[in-house]
């Protein structure tokens, strides 16, 4: 390139410097997190709540260990490597991270290469007659060999690319939070179903013991009837009561089988591949560290996902508004062109071009205005979704705090009722053997005692479920600061996806 060529390029270089200076600005609103009133410093239902020990069980994310059940710990560990809903969320997250890189690629110029060889004629019929008269060759056939490299770069003067990258990053963070929410949900479902299964085992044990007790009562009634002390109706009533208890025991097995199948699905197995033998309930309902309301916005992955979608929608407004401004594209190309193959890459065949292109849409029928209005409306919708998610989060925490507080009181009262019902059964049985009361009194006392036993187990199941749901409602020890390092999250996701594939291949 000669000095004269450089002199001619000075206006172009000046335009390039000016565009780079303007590239520091970005149109559209800068993101500000929507404000939410978290209310008082403590939850409404959290007053006089006893603190949980040790607190780090929730802080490190392994909240299920608070129940102290090794079998539960083993089942939850299988969620990360076998749950298919979690695998879907992992794939969605990796796809979102790939979109971030796709957006960032707009910062770089595009470079393309082309090479071609052609053979053709440039003559015409009219020219052939005239050239024939002059003795020259008409419609001569020519060869053409070309090779070129072309580079193009659109200067991000108005921040369209930056806003697009900002939107993609926020979307990827939202997807990472969705993944965390899916993991927490699966863990909570496993814990809740497992604890329910153990309560069902306790109910089965109770019903089997009840059947044995009713068989003894039937034998007593038959002996009394054989001795002529009672009527045949007492035996029939005892038989009816026994069969009803046996039917309840069988029906309990249906529920247990369905819960066991649900756990199998959560750990990524078919029901035929999974079985949990009957075992006593070893877990206890622990107090869960509740924290303060303001921390909830940082500990709930679904809240973080909703907030990140607000940030993404906010950036999209800038992308839409950037369309109102002209775009500047800088392009350069260079290569070789020759009519003979031997001279293809020689200096005389060198060709090049360099120059800017400024483009501005003058009339589009309102398309840009509509796109901007749509982006603003989408942003408003994500803000509403975020605020509703926050309100729902507070409701879930308060619901389960209230449930645990009230169920603890109910369990104490129900325990007293159960003790009284057991004493009543003993007294009435003795009275019936002595012939001082009818068998109706025995049936009533036994039915009351069974109902009290089942109610106690039902309360225990509800307390366990409320403990699980409270841990989930509080975020399970998750922290939104984990979203800052997308690279680390991507690596972890890829490793878990690989483990999932290997686990599937082994089956």
UniProtKB/TrEMBL annotation:
InterPro entries xrefs: MdtP/NodT-like, OMP_efflux
Main location (coarse class): membrane
UniProt region (Disordered), positions on chain: 111-141
Entry's localization field: Cell membrane
Cellular component per GO, a single term: plasma membrane
Keywords (A to Z) from UniProt: Coiled coil, Lipoprotein, Membrane, Palmitate, Signal, Transmembrane, Transmembrane beta strand
Signal peptide interval: 1-23
The name this protein goes by in its record: RND efflux system, outer membrane lipoprotein, NodT family protein
Classification of source organism: Bacteria, Pseudomonadati, Pseudomonadota, Betaproteobacteria, Burkholderiales
